[in-house]
Amino acid sequence: MGSALEQNLRAITIADRLRAEGISRRGFLKFCASTASLMALSPAMVPAIARALENARRPSVIWLSFQECTGCTESLTRSHSPSIENLILEQVSLDYHHTLQAASGEAAELAREMAMQENQGKYLLVVDGSIPVKDGGVYSTIAGITNVDMLNEVAAGAAAIIAVGSCAAFGGIGHARPNPTGAMPVSEIVTDKPIVNVSGCPPIPTVITGVLAHFLTFNKLPELDELGRPLTFFGQSIHDRCYRRPFYDKGLFAESFDDEGARKGWCLYRLGCKGPATYNACATTKWNQGTSFPIEAGHPCLGCAEPDFWDMGSFYRALSIPTEDTTRTLVYGVGTGAVLGAAAAAMARSRKSKAKALHYKVSVSDLEESS
Amino acid sequence: MTSVEFLAWVRGPMFQIAVAIFVVGVVIRLIEIFALGRKADLSKPRGGETMPGIKTIVRRSIPDPGTFKRSPFTIVLGYLFHIGLFITILFFVPHIELFHDVLGLQWPGLPTPLVDAVAIISIFAMLAILANRLRNPVLRFLSNGEDYLVWAATLLPLVTGYFAFHRMLFPYQTMLGLHILSVEILLILFPFTKLMHFFTSFIARWYNGAAFGRRGVQS
Lengths: 371, 219
Prior knowledge:
Oligomer: heterodimer
Distance between the termini of chain A: 118 Å
Largest interface: A-B, 47 and 47 residues
CATH class of the domain at 59-234 in chain A: Alpha Beta
Structural class of chain B: mainly alpha
Number of helices of chain A: 18
Helix content of chain B: over 70%
CATH superfamily of the domain at 59-234 in chain A: NADH:ubiquinone oxidoreductase-like, 20kDa subunit
Number of strands of chain B: 0
Largest sheet of chain A: 5 strands, parallel
Structural class of chain A: alpha/beta
Number of strands of chain A: 9
Order of helices and strands of chain B: HHHHHHHHHHH
Strand content of chain A: 5-15%
Radius of gyration of chain B: 20 Å
CATH topology of the domain at 59-234 in chain A: Rossmann fold
Number of helices of chain B: 11
Order of helices and strands of chain A: HHHHEHHEHEEEEHEHHEHEHHHHHHH
Shape of chain B: globular
Radius of gyration of chain A: 30 Å
CATH architecture of the domain at 59-234 in chain A: 3-Layer(aba) Sandwich
């Protein structure tokens, strides 16, 4: 670290790398154009993106993996065959990443500390996984350091944080009820740094490269929605861009995974599709190099890019169904109502009979006597 | 509270609270009504009770010519929105999913564009009903705060549902959440307001019909 080799590596720009990889300028500009259109930028921005990316030096990236399943890393590194998107990922100087780095043990931690010192205030921090805070954060530690301590330490010197995946963005499965480890998303622990949430379980690789390209081009983070997600990718719902949408509008639904409707590719709403309430780019960018996305493969959307999607009821029950057991409430309600109703009726009857008991007969002669 | 948390709350605990208040309230009121008790009628019956009771329920749902002439607006608009309300509640597929989950009963839904059209007709009928109520001095004199509250509580689920289906105004989670919340407000108000006529109108008609039937009055 800090050697002449490292200095040289840092001086390499994307343009150098493109030449080394034998990728044509035409191919590179095509990538810039598609990135611009993905991020809803004007075509006039394409040369600016190209210029910025060409001249961008390798920014230092520290990637912290906490309570996670490595699915996010798998998604980002393995789902695409070598491509220009990958080049963006390769272009960053990934100084610390559990799964991908060769170093282990103390050497690995040293790499993190050195990257922090050398790029104080400038490095990008990428986090995947939730952070357990219960019982002093003992439920997940790295090199004897709790996740929460490590996050606070590394975040302090970061230029910005990208929370990758629904765990880092919203707490994910660790945060699901009953949340035994007190898992929290990054945004609840670090409050004084710009944070981009790239949610999804896992998130779409193109979204990560898009956010990185935006950061490299404009030196700032993209516009975010109320949940801190880049609006350009999370601005529209799966349902709004779903190719099965016309069937929803017509009221044509698959009712089981093997009925005629399912075979005809009708809407999966009744099978539990959460697409109407899920904001992500799956329906447009798709997965596996644009091959398809879950709904296209015949499975309802789970809503994995939304907070607490594990606690939103069964994946296979329609969005209109309440998340708790309404039948039980109904039965108990009828029982309680019957008891209370009977009590109220008994009270009314007793008042009635008491009132009746107070009646006495009055004859005309009684009235004459009293007057 | 984010829109997602709001939706989770109205789909989760709030829905159960609303259903509990609705059921407990309705059952208490119905039992109170049925347990009021009537003096035993010792006179010799001149006719049956059951059939005249049922007949009256049906007959009083059909306006007689005189009433229709006097207040055609109330009758036409009232029918439009009541039928529209039943169609949108009972035959919109996402609603059927809800009934299936709660009651275990399922029936075929109507094509969504049809339900959509019916919803729009119902909304306009309800707006016209309010206009008629405000315009007609007698109706306005007879109306109190509760009437307007019940009108609003009935209209809101229709309007929010329409907006949610067409994905207008707010992000879908918020709009769907508002729609569910408006239904929950309706459920909570139900046992304590004139909305109880959903049950009591049939009870009252049956009672009237049965009482007359016993006295030999043709219904």
